[in-house]
Amino acid sequence: MHxxxxxxxxxxxxxxxxxxxxxxxRDRITEIGVLLVDEDGVRExxxxxxxxxxxxxxxxxxxxxxDAMLASASRFADLADELAELLDGRTLxxxxxxxxYGFLKAEFARCGRRFQPRTLCTVRLSRALYPDQRRHGLxxxxxxxxxxxxxxxxxxxxxxxxxxxxxxxxxxxxxxxVRSAVKALGRNSVLPPYLDxxxxxxxxxxxxVYFFHGEAGLLYVGKARDLRQRxxxxxxxxxxxxxxxxxxxxxRDITWETTAGELGALLREARYVKQLQPLHNRRLxxxxxxxxxxxxxxxxxxxxxxxxxxxxxxxxxxxYGLFASRAAATRVLRELAPAQGLCDYVLGLERRQSRPCPxxxxxxxxxxxxxxxxxxAHNLRLMQALAEQxxxxxxxxxxxxxxxxxxxxxxxxxHLVDNWCWLASADTPEALCQRAADGPEPVLDKDSYxxxxxxxxxxxxxPAMPLPAGRR
Length: 472
What we know:
By secondary structure, the protein is α+β, with helices and mostly antiparallel strands. Helix content is about 40%, strand content about 20%.
């Protein structure tokens, strides 16, 4: 093999790793293969690495490396000085460089070393040079350029294949095209390899929601005050956070919707996550119809908490808490009962019998069930206990339009809200009313309730106006 004239003056370390798994924070390197390419030629260096963990069977099937092969291998700490000297001052070239760099950085960090080389990802280089091709994995590249790989998923052979691709790309596209592509990738190196190189420049610097798409569907939905800054922050953190690393490896496209301000972005994020169920979103997951607690008075003047549909709030009822299930509401009552000395029978936690309730027998109930406490006293403590859970009553006679203005971007957005339900948003009140008329039946949503509480009654209160005449 011969040096690559277009890139060799930079001094390259074309590297591939085999590992015990896909997470740099938990898994370990099992093999390192490096081609050192510069003006003097090409040198090869490879080592098996003892990971100090048993290899999963699927890794052995994939690579052919097993525990017996690694039994006498050196640990990374024993190779760190030699490897650091080899890589010093060179551009690290790898197929999906972010993966290899993440593992090396983690291993060097365990040895107390800092590792921050320049990197070049050949997945991204392939995309830049061959935009008409859909697949850019190493197998697809090898097939496309007629590159023979003796032992696929062995570090040195895969590194040789990467070098062969660089030579083929230079021969096919020319030195200048390769140099230009590498230079452009250096300006946008924060992005994962499967994304368009100019995406960072196209991302707007304004509020909105963004969508990470993978090969199999939607991966993640997020909101941002500044879309460009927030989206890029995912990839600046992916080497420190295993979740961000997995997201970076899977993302294939990013789309977005801009909004006037943060409220519009937050409302959309909460709704899209529930509707679309992205793979990586943990919060804001879909919920069924919400339940709540309502106090009802019996014929003896005693108040009992009853589980009701949360939408009763829209009819003006006094409700306490929003719960995803009857069990969740019951758990709150069970937590309140001993803390406030409340009776299990009154709360409906136990079936009423002639003897005192279980909490009274444990001296946790103040004794309504055995006549030691009046209904009035119990009512008062029950209302006090639930006070922090009380939901705010809708302060308007009907639906209102909230105006959100972003002076920095000179944009306004209007949100139609009724009884704590977000109905629709649009750039004008007229378009908003039409959109709401075509929209689905409003459903009370816990996250939207919390967001709208501040916009309607809190310190972030937005200007509210009634619906235009004839639209009520």
